[in-house]
Design brief:
CATH architecture: Orthogonal Bundle
Strand content: 5-15%
CATH class: Mainly Alpha
CATH topology: Arc Repressor Mutant, subunit A
Distance between the termini: 36 Å
Largest sheet: 3 strands, antiparallel
Structural class: mainly alpha
Order of helices and strands: HHHEHHEEH
Radius of gyration: 21 Å
Helix content: 55-70%
Length: about 130
């Protein structure tokens, strides 16, 4: 094959198949990893439903500082809900945080986690763009 034919094919490939942004692909891979585990999907579901779901205890009874209820769910509440140990829940929360899908609110010694809806919507948009859907 002569070099003119090869060069033409390379130019066509660049026009029709631009390489995705490496940083964007790495972000999508972190999100895909975060969504690949049933426990993490369940945690996201609990966070989306909010504190009113699942019979979560009153934060005042637990001694959580602050006037209003936190928006998120505490690690200890995930432990109780899913029957998991603290280290396993913390691992799953860390994966969700590293993917940028959850935000953290700290109150004293307590940390509460909630879905970052803007980041989740951005991830969905990025998946749509990648799939050209």
């Amino acid at each position: 094959m002569d070099s003119t034919h090869t060069e033409g094919r390379d130019a066509t490939a660049q026009q029709c198949c631009p390489a995705p942004d490496e940083a964007a692909v790495a972000r999508l891979a972190r999100v895909a990893k975060a969504l690949s585990d049933p426990i993490r999907l369940g945690m996201l579901d609990v966070m989306v439903q909010g504190r009113a779901c699942c019979g979560l205890p009153d934060t005042v009874e637990r001694g959580v500082p602050g006037a209003a209820d936190p928006l998120g769910i505490c690690v200890c509440e995930f432990q109780e809900h899913f029957g998991l140990g603290q280290s396993k829940v913390s691992y799953h929360v860390r994966v969700l945080k590293e993917a940028g899908l959850v935000s953290e609110e700290t109150r004293g010694k307590w940390s509460f986690y909630a879905v970052d809806r803007e980041a989740a919507a951005g991830a969905l948009d990025a998946f749509r763009a990648l799939l050209r859907a």
